[in-house]
Amino acid sequence: MNLMAQSMADQPDARHRELAESRPRMAKAALRKADTSEWREKVGRAIQRAASLVGWSLKELAGAIERDPRQVARWLAGTERPQFDALFAVDVLRWPLVQCLAELDEQNEVETTIRRRA
Fold first, then answer.
1. pTM for the complete prediction?
2. What is the pLDDT of residue 4?
3. Exposure b/e, 10-44, CB count within 10 A at least 16 = b
4. How many independent structural domains does the chain possess?
5. Is 96 within a domain?
6. What span, in angstroms and rounded, lies between the C-alpha atoms of 80 and 66?
7. pLDDT given at position 55
8. Among 105, 100, 107, 108, CA closest to 45
9. Which residue range(s) make up the domain with 73?
10. Do the domain assignments include residue 11?
11. How would DSSP label each residue in the chain?
């Protein structure tokens, strides 16, 4: 057994302690459960607004992303985390969703420009 392997064998937890000590400690999330549920409700309203900009009902949105309408309703209500990969996979929904989510950040200013292609 070489010297390094022997020293690691003598102190099996040393490597794990060293890694843990070298990483900065993660601060506990400042968000309370009420804060996260409020944020999820805002995200749900943004998703609902994006779907309405496309002209979709709940059932049409659920069909487009191939999910159960009850599950999508939970996303919109903020009681379940939405699956953004499924939402962004639908081309026609992608841009309205980006706009509606951007509006959630009060630091953003959303400006819409309409240009007609020649």
1. 0.65
2. 53
3. eeeeeeeeeeeeeeeeeeeeeeeeeeeeeebeebb
4. 1
5. yes
6. 17
7. 96
8. 100
9. 33-102
10. no
11. --HHHHHHHH-TTHHHHHHHHHSPPPPPP---HHHHHHHHHHHHHHHHHHHHHHT--HHHHHHHTT--HHHHHHHHHTSS---HHHHHTSHHHHHHHHHHHHTTSTT-----------
